[in-house]
Amino acid sequence: MAKQxxxxxxxxxxxxxxxxxxxxxxxxxxxxxxxxxxHIGCExxxxxxxxxxxxxxxxKSCTVLAVQADGGxxxxxxxxxxxxxxxxxxxxxxxxxxxxxxxxxxxxxxRAYRFLQENPSPTDEDxxxxxSGNLCRCTGYQNIVKAVQYAANKLRATQGA
Amino acid sequence: MxxxxxxxxxxxxxxxxxxxxxxxxDPRFIQGKGHYVDDVxxxxxxxxxxxxxxxxxxxxxSINKEKAxxxxxxRAVLTAEDLKPLKLHWMPTLAGDVQAVLADEKVCFQxxxxxxxxxxxxxxxxDGVDLVEVxxxxxxxxxxxxxxxxxxxxxxxxxxxxxxxxxQGKRVHDNHIFRWEVGDKAATDRIFATADVTVKQxxxxxxxxxxxxxxxxxxxxxxxxxxELTVYITSxxxxxxxxxxxxxxxxxESKIRxxxxxxxxxxxxxxxxxxxxxxxxxxxxVFGRPVKWIESRIENLSTTAFxxxxxxxxELAADKNGRIKALRVNVLADHGAFNAHAQPTKWPAGFFSxxxxxxxxxxxxxxVDGVYTNKAPGGVAYRCSFRVTEAVHLIERMxxxxxxxxxxxxxxxxxxxxxxxxxxxxxxxxxWDYDSGDYPTALKKVLEAVNYPALREEQAEKRTRGELMGIxxxxxxxxxxxxxxxxxxxxxxxxxxxxxIRVHPTGSAIARIGTITQGQGHQTTYAQIIATELGLPSExxxxxxxxxxxxxxxxxxxxxxxxxxGGAATANAARKLRDKARKxxxxxxxxxxxxxxxxxxRFKVKGVPGQEKTMKEIAxxxxxxxxxxxxMGLEAVEYYDPPNFTYPFGAYLCVLDIDRxxxxxxxxxxxxxxxxxxxxxxxIIEGQIHGGLTEAYxxxxxxxxxxxxxxxxxxxxxxxxxxxxxxxxxxxETDFTVTPSPHHPLGAKGVAESPHVGGIPCFTNAVNDAxxxxxxxxxxxxxxxxxxxxxxxxxxxxxxx
Amino acid sequence: xxxxxxxxFPIAAPADAGxxxxxxIKGVAECMPGAQITQxxxxxxxxxxxxxxxxxxxxxxxxxxKIKSIDEGERKIELxxxxxxxxxASAATMNLTAQVRDGGDGxxxxxxxxxxxxxxxxxxxxxxxxxxVSEQILKQFGDNFTARVxxxxxxxxxxxxxxxxxxxxxxxxxxxLAWNVVLGFFKSLFGDTKSxxx
Lengths: 161, 801, 198
Known about the structure:
B: Aldehyde Oxidoreductase, domain 4, globular
């Protein structure tokens, strides 16, 4: 199959790759670009393990074609930390024991990152709803809610200052 | 003398047992640096994908590979014919049966493996799968296990025709696998004949699937020059895999390296050996190149490891006061087309005989019949010890049904039947020796916390208005930590576990354990055990598992055996080191070893303040100044064979409200008290309990692997198979008591599975309780809104008039 | 997964015209949206193909069709078909009995009774839509068949002229089909269907 040339921004840098038209974004990220942080859990966009931030929205990269990313901006878990400092959502998941096996975590973090921009002062119920596109089999979500609240507090404190 | 403050500070610095230490695994995971099997990318790697049967039962008339092989990039199409010369078209299961690796002339369940396409990448492999043409002649499918032993039932396993044994004792029908009986049948029958009151109820544990977020997969890499095979694999038992691969392939174990890297959840799904693994290994050996096989979610839910499918009939005999006199249980177990039940070899029904539960039942009898049906093989322990969920579910339903019949409160009947604290160690009617427990205290604490009498009053009041409110109670006992090698083995290997610790000269250490974490946080908690036992900060203790080239042989992580067995091995290995350290300290301080006291992180000379050696100092000396005749170094290995199982327990209470027009169930409150003995990391324990409760919620309220009458699977994607989201998952309240295990070196019992085992009956008891006043005795799971509504509708409760 | 359907199509043409068209297996098959007879093996055996496109997914079924019986007196034909998609991931069988009944006044009706069994991926994923999809297929079949009978009654009985008067769809129309399936699903909620699924 003839390959397509695509260029997009990934975690702040520019990447340029050749992909088949049918290649899914998750496979381009994981296999062509070696960014294995985002995972594949269901292939049907139910589980959210493959969630990436694409042009300012949370998308499930298992059901997006890589060619659709051409010219766009993609952020994955690998791009969350900044200058060696963890992003508050990363810190929150660690502090509040918001992860166990770690498989859903990259998708959760990327979703939380976007969710807190959509709603900087969420209630616990808002968080449960806002994160409901991401499944976790280990934690029972309670600590994930706490982790997102931790990040919300920290983000508000730093942005308020 | 150290001051209390200094003493505490030193202790805190270790972050040892009891500390809610943050997880050491997390920095990798939160930065996308986890390393799971599908992240493994080796040069020249090929990709395998499996051709599967569309039929539940059919004869294979032909397989045409030509079109697939003509596709550029497709390297091979493996079928049973190709594996036959290698004698690998069938493989042994953990349950004494055999399973087809690739279907041999016949398919026995839908999605069964028929061929494996090996291609240059995963897209080409999938293309190749579409081009393999298989011609089938459909046969009648056997779906309902209740008809498995009918005279005219289709015979599923033609390879076993005429054999009166399928690896687990005598069988009486071509679709029969085994009959397992335990207890005193005659004595039980006698009590039932004369009892004041008896109850009998069919209780179903439907077929479900553990469905971890990461599916199964492997990367097999055979180095033709060295003759060495390396397999990265999603396995909860890598050492067992190595033994099995060695037995299958004929390669010596020393030439096989099995690596379980990070595992994205197991929950019992990753205990077995699956055809995809075997196919990838064979292909790698044939091509001398790495071969990756990763399941899709559909394949995962369709083929690898279902759980439960126990069709039980329970009976209790009791006196008028609700004091249970006897238990009788008959179970029909649907094992699917091959008996690949995950179990210690001699236990065809796992530890189902724990079904007398937390109650002092003098006489009992249980019988389990396993049958073949045209469904996927499995029978794994989904977040529980072998068949314990089923056992606990049965007794916890039956005691509620008895209470209902006698008009006794469901908490009260439990107090009347509990094994009393002074009866421990307790020998159960079906042969188990419970190590320790205090059931009444646990239940009392829960009832007080939720103000139980007020809840019952509220319920009575709501019932007068036709509203549906349920209160579920579950007081469960688990049996975990398999197990003593005298009665537990897997393929002949005793179910011990192991730990090897090396303390380096500057006082840091590496520990390798035979278990494997799948999210339980072993790198954090094993280090805490060593920190407390050795007096070295857990921060400098590295924990490694899952690589058979480095870790000592262990049986792996399932059935809550890590802390009870691996944790005990770790504590004992550390204690061996501390004994050696004592001798070195005595040598350094020029006193007798008996004159030394251990205090947190150092040995002190009795009665001589200031005369002391810290473990850090001793570690240095171990490499340059040991007593004459002593070996240098500070290393120890322990292979721990547990003297008994451990018996964690708990008391759970669930309050829920049911909308009588929609059947929707809302869990208002869930209070979980767990007693897992000594608590190593309370933060991790709480996390494990949250997770187990959520999986219990999933099973009770929605999970079902459903089939139509033709054996077509109707729930093999996440569209149809229920995994709860954050929205419907209830909020959990946790509590604990501590009753240490008397035989475990740390007193710890294991915890991660208790909430699943205890949670399921608690939810289902609550739903059933909501209808108890209407004479309903049993509504089977899953309690989806539609199913609950059907009950409501049958009872006419949704009548708005 | 099995679904049984019964449908009656009233046609404003004489029963003989209806019966004539019904015996032309190739023509009848082409009334099935997406279906085609590719080869006649003998008097009662045919090979054929059904193509279906639903959104981005295409399913192509190859199969065999067998005439089980033809009853001239009753104007009744019994067919059995079975097929599987090329990859073998899904399979289906169908028993179809069709009968032309004289309605008097130069009118007739065709009564179709079918019993469809599907297995494999189609059953796992399409099972819940099977009744609706089958109803739609049957409805489109009825429309095409009616058009053919009417054309035949007008005397246009060469295949060429019939084909010209009724261009049969060679593939199931995805969008239209999906829309009709959804409509059918909602109707079925209110019991507006004769079908029984089981």
